[in-house]
Amino acid sequence: MSDWLGPTEWQALALSLKVSFWSTLLSLPFGILVAYALARWQFRGKQVLNGLVHLPLILPPVVTGYLLLLTFGRRGAVGGWLEDTFGLVLAFRWTGAVLAAAIMAFPLLVRALRLAIEAVDPKLEQAAATLGAPHWWVFATVTLPLILPGLIAGAVLGFAKAMGEFGATITFVSNIPGQTQTLPSAIYTFLQVPGGEDPALRLVAVSVVVAMGALLVSELLARRAARRVAGA
Fold first, then answer.
1. Residue 21's pLDDT is what?
2. How many CB atoms lie within 10 A of CB 226?
3. Euclidean distance between CA atoms 128 and 142, whole angstroms
4. Which of 83, 89, 151, 169 is exposed most, by the fewest CB atoms within 10 A?
5. What's the predicted TM-score (pTM) here?
6. Where are the transmembrane segments (predicted)?
């Protein structure tokens, strides 16, 4: 692939893979917690939480990126505190691209996890709880094995969404080659210059392959999860 893609294209692809990996990995614990809360708990403000989780799907990505810039930029309340306390800068850094991708992919991850958790019979968890097992042990030994295919499917969808994230990312971290230029940003850049159609087309082909592969894997795992829960 290094012979087929040029250096700039390879850099953009490698950065997109890194950003997507870390955004998915960091989203998983929060996604599991939020999905479990929405699927199993009854509490005041549940619909508000559900709305906030899915807000990135409704808002224009540029708006999400601008809100991230206002909040996590160097002059933002959170961004200024992170820089002063930990020396961590997110705006116009690849770490900021991780945050943007994680937020944009989070609804898909939570949705897949919530459906998987709701498909598990609560009586299985209740039976384990009546034997004196703590809640975390019930989740780790009963719920998690049953939702694992759904969890993987959600992670794959989140990874694919992060790979294709553009609007929020370019608004929050810009489009700096070798630093914050992800695969979609590189495609956008190539299309703005004469003679950039060929590298743009190559990156489009890579994007299509990754997206189709992710959808295929997600569908296979979703079917496996349905069969597994039905046989539980």
1. 93
2. 15
3. 8
4. 89
5. 0.87
6. 20-39, 51-72, 92-113, 134-160, 200-222
